[in-house]
Specification:
The chain is an alpha/beta fold. It contains nine helices and 27 strands.
Length: about 425
């Protein structure tokens, strides 16, 4: 059985950044396992700009952003295997994988970094009535067809869901000559970044219908049209509000689901809100020596934040291998609890003795809040109270904690993160 210090599952932006930081932090034998035919992950099909403003202080396309990391991986001579599917990871960190050249093989890892990314929610998960005609695509599939394969999925398009991929594809399809009739969103607010709503919809005169959903898909062989309806506060269609739109294509941009089948099978404790692992300040899961980062942990809005988080996972994985121990006992940990409009936090557990001098706490809110405060309370004592002009579910928020604020806390302490009115 081959031995590696660190094995990284996934060669997308998270896996690449984690590998580089692990190498920089003293990791020796590092291996990236990627199931696709090239490194870079989803970035390879994201040919629009807007990447890299935080990481490189310049605006790049997705392939350009990925290329910067791939070049560094090559330069550092970090090993990677492409077209390789990971089938299983044991709690003892034995990775079982297979590819065409080597068949089935096993690797013993000192530490494992989970960086598998996420997938789109399918039509089957949405329970939309109607036949199953051709012309129904996820927005990401359409993006790959247009940007990488050179195919135009359709000429008249309706998009359900206003996530970032859906918004970007509204602009992309328009630029390729298709007519985007409408973007419908089930929720009363968009799930995408504000800049994407402006640049991808408003600039092209594409209407966005909030609190609307698709209630029927017409057509047997090919989509001929869809029916939209307004929904009430319980997200149920309101009778009499139906509108018919003729189209030959329906794109679905209805959320992303972290790819955590491997994580669940190995026994990692999961967060039901994020559908990702529960992690501590080192981004270590409930299994010692197994770390998670990027969209497999929680869905990010900017790839720059994925790289930043993955670098932290790589750094801590290298430290774990060097120390050959998981660190402080669970008794010395602080539980982070989201309340009052905060949906979740990453991390969920903090061990002050293992924290770096400054810890970033990322979270998302469950509604749109204007002129509200984000507050942190440790055992009833307020540590932070910051006013934010606007907070929306589509944009990730963050707070910074200093290690000295938490040192000396009794075992079983709670850190509450909440939204408060001004």
């Amino acid at each position: 059985m081959r031995q590696y210090d660190i094995v990284i599952i996934g060669g997308g932006p998270a896996g690449l950044a984690a590998a580089l930081e692990a190498k920089k932090s003293g990791g020796q034998r590092i291996l990236i396992l990627e199931r696709d035919r090239e490194l870079g992950g989803i970035l390879n099909q994201c040919i629009h700009n807007g990447f890299g403003l935080h990481t490189f202080k310049e605006e790049l396309t997705g392939p350009e952003y990925a290329a910067r990391f791939i070049e560094q991986v090559e330069k550092e001579q970090i090993e990677y295997l492409l077209n390789t599917m990971v089938l299983d990871i044991s709690p003892e960190k034995v990775v079982t994988a297979m590819n065409r050249e080597e068949g089935l093989f096993e690797i013993q890892a000192g530490a494992v970094i989970l960086a598998m990314g996420c997938r789109e929610r399918s039509r089957g998960a949405l329970n939309i009535p109607g036949y199953r005609p051709a012309g129904v695509f996820s927005a990401g599939t359409a993006q790959r067809l247009v940007n990488m394969e050179g195919f135009l999925p359709g000429r008249e398009v309706v998009i359900l869901g206003s996530g970032d991929i859906g918004l970007i594809m509204a602009r992309r399809m328009t630029l390729e000559g298709a007519k985007v009739k409408v973007v419908a969103e089930l929720l009363p607010y968009s799930g995408g970044l504000k800049r994407n709503i402006v640049q991808c919809l408003d600039d092209y005169g594409i209407p966005l219908k909030l609190s609307h959903t698709v209630v029927d898909i017409q057509g047997k062989e090919r989509v001929t049209g869809v029916t939209l309806a307004k929904v009430d506060e319980n997200r149920r269609p309101i009778t009499g509000t139906e509108e018919f739109y003729s189209c030959d294509t329906l794109l679905l941009s209805c959320g992303l689901i972290p790819e955590n089948e491997l994580s669940r099978e190995m026994g990692v404790v999961m967060n039901p809100v994020t559908s990702g692992p529960v992690v501590n300040e080192s981004l270590e899961t409930s299994i010692p020596g197994v770390f998670a980062c990027g969209n497999v942990l929680h869905v990010h809005d900017l790839v720059d934040f994925v790289s930043q988080e993955a670098a932290s996972a790589g750094r801590h994985a290298a430290a774990y291998v060097a120390a050959e121990k998981s660190g402080e006992a669970a008794a010395s940990s602080i539980t982070v609890k989201p309340q009052g409009g905060v949906r979740y936090t990453v991390p969920s557990i903090l061990r002050p003795q293992r924290m770096e001098e400054e810890q970033i706490l990322r979270f998302r809110v469950g509604d749109v809040y204007k002129n509200h405060y984000v507050s942190m309370y440790l055992n009833g004592e307020r540590l932070a109270h910051r006013k934010r002009p606007v907070m929306a579910p589509g944009e990730m928020e963050e707070l910074k904690l200093k290690r000295e604020q938490l040192l000396g806390c009794p075992a079983g302490s709670e850190l509450i993160v909440t939204i408060e009115e001004a």
